Amino acid sequence: MGSLLLAVIYLIFISxxxxxxxxxxxxxxxxxxFGVASACAGYVSMTISFMTIISALCSPRMIxxxxxKWIVIVSIFLxxxxxxxxxxxxxxxxxxxxxxxYGLGAGSIDASVNHYxxxxxxxxxxxxxxxxxxxxxxxxxxxxxxxxxxARWNEGYRWTSYIQAGxxxxxxxxxxxxxxGGKAEQETRRDSxxxxxxxxxxxxxxxxxxxxxxxxxxxxxxxxxxxxxxGTEAGLPGETVAAFGSLVFGGLMLGRLISGxxxxxxxxxxxxRIGIAVELLGICLVVxxxxxxxMTAVGFVIVGTxxxxxxxxxxxxxxxxxxxxxxxxxxxxxxxxxxxGSTFMPMVFGHVQQxxxxxVMPVYLLAFALMNLGMLELAYRKLPQAGKL
Length: 389
Hints:
Elements: H1 2-17, H2 22-34, H3 40-65, H4 68-87, H5 92-120, H6 123-150, H7 153-173, H8 182-190, H9 195-199, H10 204-232, H11 238-243, H12 247-266, H13 268-287, H14 292-307, H15 310-316, H16 318-356, H17 361-382
Helix pairs in contact: 1-5, 1-6, 1-7, 2-6, 3-5, 3-16, 4-5, 4-7, 5-16, 6-7, 6-12, 6-15, 10-14, 10-16, 10-17, 12-13, 12-14, 13-14, 13-15, 13-17
């Protein structure tokens, strides 16, 4: 029964990754259909992210009142509604209407399932879980590419909504597998702290700044890596430059896969330190002036590999660091911090590189990597439980 539930949880995280890559892969065609500027994708993306932040901030209250399975069911339904709504949009402004359920569903799933896994499973499961998110994020561009080849972009959203509906059906059928956890767990959920109280707990605020820093660097890599190659390596074909967009993402999945096998042995804190050290090594390789673009490409893969274990390990530590009473609120706040970093800091870098050049990207990444490490080390010193990890 436990293995079946774990399979369902992995499937849920595939569903979480499915919607995230559709807008970027379909936008060039959508932009032409709507007759709007290329930059207008950013407004839709920011609306989705804003709703996700709201959903993540509301998640502690929902986790306190409802079991994870019901939060997941409602959240997946909202994403199905958002995806299906996108598929029927005939005008640009309509996207904003369906961006609301699109974003609300994502934040609740992310926070609630991460909290559930952190509370009930070892660190290896958390790393594999985030690996399966990557599977969903890889599948959806392929779906959109097939839709653009055989139909229209609308069908890419529609077909993805059908897959999400199928996953929703599986979750509904799995309801008997989700144990309520007995009276003790229900009391723990009911006794969970709110956001205001949690923010006063020593170590929480540095952890949130660390999460913000991590996601700022990660999202900047996702968006600007191809541009870095285009700006620093003259003469590369356009298709080669575009392919470099997957370097960090591939490294990220590799890092989480490796971490899944070693995390129980190394422990979360050591795994995070190793991960950030590998990330710093990758940043150094990016700027090494030998080997042409090959060394730069290897550097970005290593950056992603180092980043891989950080996100799941920090979340897995929440129940141990802050206790069962505060863990739901901490994870919800972490998710909100993550989405703030990934939403706004790549845009900030866009203005920075426009002023001083794309070559500053490794310095930008280095600053956030060091801030991430520094804030986590500060959090460890503030926590009485830290010595146990």
